[in-house]
Amino acid sequence: MEPKPRIGVYICHCGINIAATVDVKQVAEFAGTLPGVVVSRDYLYMCSDPGQGLIQQDIREKSLNRVVVASCSPRMHEPTFRAAAEGVGLNPYLVEMSNIREQCSWVHTDREDATEKAKWLVASVVAKAELLEPLESREVGVTPGTVVVGGGVAGMVAALDVADAGFPTYLVEKSNHVGGRVADLNRTFPTLESVPEMLEPLIERVQTHPNITVMLSSQVAGVEGYVGNFEVTVTGLKASGSKPVEAESSDLRSGTHQLSAGSIIIATGYDVFDPHRKPELGYGQYSNVITSLELERRLVEGDLTVNGRSPKRVAFIQCVGSRDKLLGNPYCSRVCCMYTAKQSRLAKELLPDADVTVFYMDVRTFGKGAEEFWDEARAKGVLYRKGNISEIYRKRSDDGDRVVLAGEDTLLGQPIDFEADLVVLAVGMEPRADVADLSTMLKLPRSADGFFLELHPKLRPVDTAVDGVFLAGCCQGPKDIPDTVAQAKAAASSALIPLLRGTVPVESATAIVDAEACAGCGMCVEVCPYGAPALDPLWGVSRINAVLCKGCGACAVTCPSKAIRLQQFTPTQILAQVDALVGV
Amino acid sequence: MKTRQMTEQLELFGCIQCGKCTGGCPVARKTALNIRSLIYHMLVEPELAVNAHEELWDCTCCFTCVERCPKDVRPAELIIGLRGELVESGRIPETIGAALMGIFRQGNPTGMAREDRSAWTNGTEVKAAQQGCELLYFVCCTASYDLRIQPVARALVKTFRAADLDFGTLGTEESCCGNEVRRMGEMGLFEMLVEENGELIRSVGASRLVTTSPHCFNTFKNEYGLDGIEVLHYTQLVAELIEDGRLNFSGGVDNKVTYHDPCFLGKQNHIFDEPRAILQAIPGVELVEMDRSRERSLCCEGGGGRMWAEGTNLEERLAFQRVREAAETGAEILAVACPFCLLTLEDAVKVQGLDEQLRVMDIMELVDLAL
Amino acid sequence: MIPVTIDGQSIEVEEETTILEAAQQLGIHIPTLCHHPALEPYGACRLCTVEIFYDGRSRLVTACNYPIRWELEVQTASDKVMKGRRLLAELLLARCPNAPAVREIAASLGVTETRFEMSSEDELCYLCGLCVRICEELIGQSAISFVSRGVDRQVGTPFFEFSDACIACGACEFICPTGAIKLPDITDKEPRPMLSEFDMGIAKRGNIYIPFPQAVPKIPVIDRENCLHYTLGRCGTCEYFCEANAIDYDQEDEFIDLDVDAVVVATGYDLMDPRIKPEFGYGVYPEVMTGIEFERLSSASGPTMGKVSVNDKAPKDVVFIKCVGSRDPHTGVPYCSRFCCMYTAKHAHLVRDRIPDANITIFYMDVRAFGKGYEEFYDRVKHERVTYRRGEPSEIYRRGNRLVVLAEDTMLGRPVEVEADLVVLATAAVPRADVKEMAEKLEIELSPDGFFQEEHPKLRPVDTQVDGIFLAGCCQGPKDIPDTVAQAKAAASSTLRVLAQRERVIRGA
What we know:
Chain A is α/β, with parallel strands linked by helices. Chain B has three domains: 4-88, no CATH class; 101-241, Rossmann fold, CATH 3.40.50; 249-370, 3-Layer(aba) Sandwich (Rossmann fold). In chain B, helix 8 packs across helix 16 (363-370) and helix 12 (234-243) packs across helix 13 (273-281).
């Protein structure tokens, strides 16, 4: 005989986020009149410690066996409230939430209407709460190891941290060398040390580390599994490095390897903006209009001559391909102001008699030592002029290769036609074109700017919507080396968590097949994105792998025999919600 | 004028004062026109003395600023808006007023009689589109009335016939497309033209509309809302005809030819390749490119009402610079695809005394020679 | 334990318990006016009079101070008592006809008019003596007392002059039930409100206080420097009231030795005091505040619940000034504070949200919207009609009842004066005052900008010169939340390495 439901309802003010639009006291009063509700409260911040304390206290003192929290989206705090309940011995799945913020107070303005709606929303969840069932929390084991996709600075640093913590790490790199784009650079701000010298010890450590297997000229071809138990298929050259490939199956001839890992770190980096897309700047047409990366190579050689002559006037143009809505790149590429300050300074050192000018919109030298570095560049004679260049054309005269930069010096308030022998375009970063596949393989969402989307813009910069997959470096958004290294280490720390714990919890609210009702049609197998259902060859009915099932419900909806029930969202529960909403 | 309303209407707030607009503005170099500065004034000052900015009439509406703005602020629309203010208060240059009056009265800026609009046909029969046709050919005021441009229209007719197209014109019912009218700020007249022309065009029932002038093309394509009708500039159509093999060139033009991209065709509507394809299909043509071509083509100063306004700087004309650039390529012919470009550049050639070296011709005139 | 029956309910109490206390234990309400649990009972108002029965006799006594020494029966609302109370109510009404507390008592007893002559309509003091008693018993200053006798009796200072003994603590004002006593009548000393540090001085707090609603732990803390118990050895009311007996005035700092393998330094930063740039008038003009002060002002859970108001009205013209102190060799802060551009944009957005028709101007040198989604946010804020003007203001001065911000608008190329009702300064982020001390203790170095020095500016942003000591967050240099979180996790990763390696060493591997 099941005990009668004793429901506690908690209406959150969320500061003024809810309370400014919804009369929370009224809603709490109303909730108190609903069947099964033993206590109904309102409080300023339910998610805070004292808020959770209220729930815990009531569970203990009033023997609550169901909890309804009416507040923000469950995406925010469902785990919080579930953990609070679990902490005092109540099964976490007997806690349900009603979203009266994103679905009510944040989208309506009329106080009366919003309050009415909130009441009905709460009533519907209370109706569901009566029918909730306790569910088991499950855990599975974790493969000790990480796959890092991308062998640039981010990938290397992440791999090192995981490897140093004692776990085997695979570093999968598409090109034939590690080091990424940083390896193409000459010197780096703010200390202006040589990049190859700076990178060498890092690369050395990666290549000789006993726990790291470097796989060059290799690409991820497929990813199966879930956090703690990923199966990654990599095609390419056979593994190199001091540790032989530990794989379930490895076909050395065709170069396909199966890697098992507990977590995955994506460190695939970025593409450089192709200035051909801004034809008015004449890149590709004039040989003395080059990109910053091309300049970097020339700085390595120490040779800035253009067609055999030393340039007398050098111009840098910022924000090429960034902060540009028309191009579809509205974001800032973050590193260009600093690298231009560096390059202009180095150029001035190499060409002390030349005029070196930087055309800018804003100067974003925000990092540690950055503003001081920029001050130095100007002190050494680099001239900064505010005004982005509109177009470049050839100077018509016998003066050789000079081009003319048509722009406006906005501080003078006058248009200028600036002659230059060498023009350097500060090209920005773009998301890599070839990661669309990876994105699909892993179901990794992207932000509006096209880079990978992190789980929370402030508090979860390296986590993704996919458990066990983490982001490091510029694949998440443009950033410089120190921020990349920090992020890579951050990703490593996240990747280490399941490895160190040894187990991961799996979704409890999964789908269950009623074998009696199942007709064996196989539609659920087709529709599941996670490969969880499978037809039992002997019995001809569908069985759902509770570990693979994520509880999306697609199978339950598809099943023509209504043989599949999604726990926590059963038809009875949902219909009870509908009844409560309709006011039956 | 109080700035607030127009600033909000035109959504100028996104401007970060980067200067690309003024930086790329061809007239900014020789007049006081500074569009960036004007936008800034709109943002920070509560009032703007519009009457004090004579240079507003210098803008050719080449829309380089619109093409370059990284924040999609569309600076030229401010100029058009401010001109609207001037029009409403009646403070406009006389010549512009006359052009507008002509359009209002006789449907064309020259003010010449409407009945004479079809005189360019020179006696040849051109079907009246009102009877129904597949291709509506919109001739354009300048092509209809200007003796220098009439050959272009005739060449087009000849070409359409050669390709056996079912085409017609609106004859004397055709009125000015209004592209320049809007850009001169006379919104009321523009809306009237859109309504009248639009009705007329739709009633024809043609599936395609082709124009002589990129200006007409621009407004029909982007501003009239002629859904269901494919709007083309003649270069697109003729290039298509050539590619489909429907035109045969028995003659040729044995000359070095350079092509000037008209702002309303190139910069604004990104049609760069079709005109070049036509030129290269003509036997004997050796196509050379000027340095400032395609997106960087130097405006001839014919648009934005400038055909009827001298502007504040009478000395140096961009057209002079342009024809010098053309001459420097060694070309003998400077090919254009726009009546305004043709008139201004030819005038520049004469004034600079370059007529021995360089001839300015419309692409259709070259096609005509080759057909 | 002595048995006593009150209104038919029985209870056993300890000797010397007052009838009032016994009744409270039983949940029986007896009205009082001059009683306060923290003060000795006084018996002035007589409202708590009850009828007691013993040895076959009955008497009327005041419940607040009658000690129970033998078995008693008490009636709190007998006819005799009620008659007496109603008379008292009439007397009180005559004395203080408009004091809300008196009107309440009268109403609860059904008394609507008085037969006695009213002294004065405005009289609020009914001589309950709470103020006098608190000043004497808890505060210990005895700055006020009852003076004169009979009908002239009143509360006052010696010779009705400003009292020297008064410390302007405000306890008398606090405890007065009718608002009859006011500090300015007793002393010319300015009361010194305790300002909430969390709310940047916009709100007040007591000397025992919870810093803010989301404080963790959410436990009150005593301000030892101002608490009367610590400074004067008086009061102690909080201890008296605490039911959990959690107050321990004798708590001392504990020194704890921890043996650890790794240390993460995450000590954060301070904000520069804008008084270092006196030309902005901070501290002189109340309309000038810092970014963090504005943060509290505009916070929905802050002291004004998010209402942005200055001088009691919503500001019409708001000016934000960036780079106050940053990028400025004169202040010793040549570096960029990194997050101010974005929080200023956010603040401007908040102002637009709260005051839809405000004129909002931001003066800047550069707009450093470099992070993910930042440029797009900057664009959005501009479209909300926030005007960005390039030019670092030079000074602020007063004109009438408004302020004027003087700057050169470098886009216009001329000086401008912008009037403002509110000016918000984005002050520089600076290393904490104790950073040198910390560095010495930990034997780690400081960078030229004063923050902790990382081991390598590119490849080792969280390591220090000492193995096992790592840096996280703004103590290494100003940064925003996402970058701080990433750095913090980076430091965690470094410590995991240390711990993992230690384990291997111990295992002898």
